[in-house]
Protein: Tubulin tyrosine ligase like 2
Amino acid sequence: MRRPDLCSSTPTQVLGSLRTTTPACTLNVPSEANYTEQLPAGLGARLQEAGVSIPPWRGRPTSTLEKKRKPHLMEEDEPSGALLKPLVFRVDETTPPVVQSVLLERGWNKFDEQEQNAEDWNLYWRTSSFRMTEHINVKPWQQLNHHPGTTKLTRKDCLAKHLKHMRRMYGTSLYQFIPLTFVMPNDYTKFVAEYFQERQMLGTKRSYWICKPAELSRGRGILIFSDFKDFIVDDMYIVQKYISNPLLIGRYKCDLRIYVCVTGFKPLTIYVYQEGLVRFATEKFDLSNLQNDYAHLTNSSINKSGASYEKIKEVIGHGCKWTLSRFFSYLRSWDVDDLLLWKKIHCMVILTILAIAPSVPSAANCFELFGFDILIDDSLKPWLLEVNCSPALTLDCSTDVLKRKLVHDIIDLIYLNGPRNEGRETSNATHRNANIDAAKSDRGGLDAHDCLPYESLSFTSRMYNKDDSVVEKAVSVHPKAAPASQLEGEMSGQEDFHLSTKEMAQSKPKIRSRHTPHKTLMPYASLFQSHSCKTKTSPRVLSDHGKAPDPQAGNFVLVFPFNEATLGASRNGLNVKRIIQELQKLMNKQHS
Ligand code: ADP
Structure:
């Protein structure tokens, strides 16, 4: 008799095979039988006799699920003790402290390589990417927080190349959200030609460019210039058109940090977080001084060390960050169509990820959190500046506390959909379904279309129904961290919020469009879900093409696939052309 394969079996499978096929006498007793200690009386001893160590429980651990043990999670005669094993997370010295603290708060245990078997962990979260061998060896109960191949998006030169390719394939009108970019040294002559051509066209007017190291982050090594003689050519740099008409708030430049979680590339599944950060420069925008990083760069790593960081600044208050919801509410107060802007951002996220999705390697049980940096210009056009892997999760100021909830919601999200096993779909199907059922039950037995039984703060969400018309439905978000909101209140300084008359002229966005009636914290639960909240049918089963991913987990909202056609086009290989057609339709509707 063979010993059951603990690596590829769930505890149920292990126990099942034990009961039916495995004579105890033929198995070795492993030294680590520690998990059996918590099993019902007698069972631990029997397992030890049989020589089985049980890997930690790898079911879905949402906060409530972790506390309440759901009887339906257990297979008929599975010993309940097996479910009481805490989940185990693995970290290294680069793991953000907030991740560890959130997981401990959720009742997880920290992996201890001295004490535990090498494979006895459920989630490995670190800043750097994983080696391909680590991906290949991942076990069905394990998750890694990076997907292989995503540097194609997160290196500035690669991003530029991929988006350029997409522009060639699918047209400039769709892919015009990245500023004109030249990758050095290859594009040097093209850049020089463009520079002088533009100079000629502009006459006495100046043009502005920004040079950024392809691989660095946090504003390091950046140079902004107008005069060619200030341009220093360097390898591994990109030169990009400098957006010289940014949307200013209180005359300060800002950009948006949007959190995006891809829970799988095959099939492609993209969630956008409905809260985020707005990062401000801390000195007033001034094109006559391009050397002042505090006026031109919005990186908080730079601005938090500036002399003006602590000062109360016009409109933005003190510090250098707002939440995204505060930003949208500011836009609404100026009668701006923030919903349209948000829709454009969703499209931009999908179009960007589509640029690499067909070429990333298949990998099981991993996800990727991206930080999209987006600058809005004064005509409210969003520009993609860069995509970050491992976006900063440090808590520098009270606004940053949203990152705690972000981490909670990521955990909910990855376990709501169940561990993903691209290419190993069948073997773990049972386990995944159990997770989904558990998740469903954990949300009070509601299907996703019942829209979020979370408490607190109601807002109006807009969802697209089958014919893409907007329907409105009251749903709730749960910014459950009370201390966060308190701090946020202190930080936000509502008295700073209104513009002075002088301010108005300079700060008001140029385009003012349709008024959006909602005056609430987060504007939308979903912009794209074609499976409307109206019907009582489960939105997960959309068609014969396959099962739709869950539409929402916490503040994460599914943006791709966004209708039946895109669901179909993302199964059995990614049909990018078809998806682009659907996006085009959607965007045409947005503009009409
Ligand atoms: P890093 O990875 O170093 O943060 P980014 O591309 O995000 O590099 O640029 C840093 C900052 O520089 C941005 O947050 C933004 O404020 C500014 N910036 C970058 N590119 C542009 C651009 N094309 N136009 C205007 N501002 C830009």
